[in-house]
Amino acid sequence: VQLQASGGGSVQPGGSLRLSCKASGNIFSINTLGWYRRAPGNERELVAVTTSGGRTTYGDSVKGRFTISRDNAENTVHLQMNSLKPEDAAVYYCNAVTTVRQMTQVYWGRGTQVTVSS
User: Fold this and answer.
1) What would the DSSP string read from start to end of 9-57?
2) How far apart are CA 46 and CA 95, in angstroms?
3) Cα(70)–Cα(90) distance, rounded to whole angstroms?
4) How far apart, in Å, are the Cα atoms of 45 and each of 33, 72, 74, 110?
5) Can you give the pLDDT of all 118 residues of the chain as single tens digits?
6) By three-state DSSP, how is residue 117 classified?
7) Which of 5, 8, 43, 118 has a CB 3.0–4.6 Å from the CB of 109, allowing a cystine?
8) Reduced to 3 states, what is the DSSP secondary structure of residue 111?
9) 47, 36 in Cβ contact below 8 A?
10) How far apart, in whole angstroms, are the C-alpha atoms of residue 116 and residue 84?
11) What single string gives the DSSP state of each residue in 58-109?
């Protein structure tokens, strides 16, 4: 599985950004697809993931502000980020988890920088 992320950039507090991640390769083995982030000095944390069945999970710090959606026809997941705060600034990583023959594998895309500052 290959993951190609796009979006990100710099925005003022309160602004919005949209990230997208397109999966290719063995896409039919993907169970979950989503985003994690890592800010300098912090551990990587969950932002939002969605399962092949449509279930979504959000990190506590982004609930109510971020929305993840999945376009199955395009094998793409989008992350709409609204009401951005300075603490949302981080490198965001697209993530996919697959299961093939009862073996689970985790894939990461290249990080995309999100900067929130005035």
Assistant:
1) EEE-TT--EEEEEEEESSGGGEEEEEEEEE-TTS--EEEEEEETTS-EE
2) 10
3) 22
4) 15, 25, 26, 16
5) 999 999 999 999 999 999 999 999 888 888 999 999 999 999 999 999 999 888 999 999 999 999 999 988 888 999 999 999 999 999 999 999 998 888 899 999 999 999 999 9
6) coil
7) 5
8) coil
9) yes
10) 7
11) E-TTTTTTEEEEEETTTTEEEEEE-S--GGG-EEEEEEEEEEETTEEEEEEP
Residue 85: C-alpha distances to residues 13, 76, 89, 108, 114 (Å): 5, 25, 7, 25, 11
* Greatest Cα pair distance in the chain: 49
In this prediction, residue 90 carries a pLDDT of: 98
